[in-house]
Amino acid sequence: MSLDQPVFSALLPVVVLIGIGFAAGRLQLIRGAAVRDLSNLVFLVLVQALLFRTMATARLDRLDLHSVALYYVVSGLLFFALLLARGLSSRSAVLALAAIFSNTLMIGVPLVQLAYGDAALVSLFTLISMHALILLTLATVVLELLVAREQAAAGAGPRRHIAATVARAMKNAVLHPVPLPIIVGFLYSLTGWGLHPVVEQPLRLLGNAFGPVALVLVGVTLAQTAIGTQLKGALQIAALKTVLHPLLMAAAGWALGLSGLPLKVMVVAAALPIGANVFLFSQRYHKEEDLVTAAVAVSTVMAMGSISVVMGLLGTL
User: Fold this and answer.
1) Contact (CB, 8 A) for 18 and 148
2) How far apart, in whole angstroms, are the C-alpha atoms of residue 269 and residue 266?
3) Residue 161 has what pLDDT?
4) Where are the domains of the chain?
5) Which of 299, 235, 253 is nearest to 103 (CA)?
6) Which stretches of the chain score pLDDT less than 70?
7) What is the pLDDT of residue 59?
8) CATH, domain range 4-314
9) DSSP letter string, 213-248
């Protein structure tokens, strides 16, 4: 099996789904007025089911966190470095999230399984189980803090003491469509009760619909975006995600003695294209929606080449 085969096998369905959405948007089968409602469906219904079920059924006591701790350290440092480099703003936070948040589920799982076998999935599932909990919660807290600061600076609300601003931002971050189902699911998992099939099956069906519907929605939005004007910015973000992120992960892993399948899985995960959750974040906060939409599509296409190179180089280690 060539190295290219698992890459294209995993990425082509994503490209096709985005293409279907693009065609539906251009043919006006899904009109612009419906995009916000579809975004709410994905963000407020489908992703809720996915996140809650993932955390509620995870056996956190059996997860080996050693192989993924470094991934989050590298991702977090890159997030804050990009945030500082672009300036402390909610816009910068969304773009920084795009540079670190991978499409681990729809692309990562089939790619890693095809390339490295079922043994590698243990490391990847450990990463996935904490992916949204750590990165999306981090991004939500930062975004809420920056939005509160921007509103205060614009005179959109009363000026508060920094402690009150932080407390309000933390409250908004917890009572948020992403961290809340993660937290509730995590707390439920501690009971050890499991989910009854009557509850688990509808949640699973809704969660399974998240990825395809979100990617079709990316395509619909892309059809309404003048991608030519966003191409340069989208290429820059895609390069950060699919080139810089895995390079930093590989360098950090090598420096700290990480090797074998755990290193390969973490580097490949870092090289994955931008996850659809970033698109939903940009929609929710109304920040750089066109640029993020273009970046998701561009990074998916770019990843066909960059992941092939990454996996080729990892094969020599």
Assistant:
1) no
2) 5
3) 61
4) 4-314
5) 299
6) 1-5, 58-64, 122, 156-176, 178, 316-317
7) 65
8) 1.20.1530.20
9) HHHHHHHHHHHTS-HHHHHHHHHHHHHIIIIIHHHH
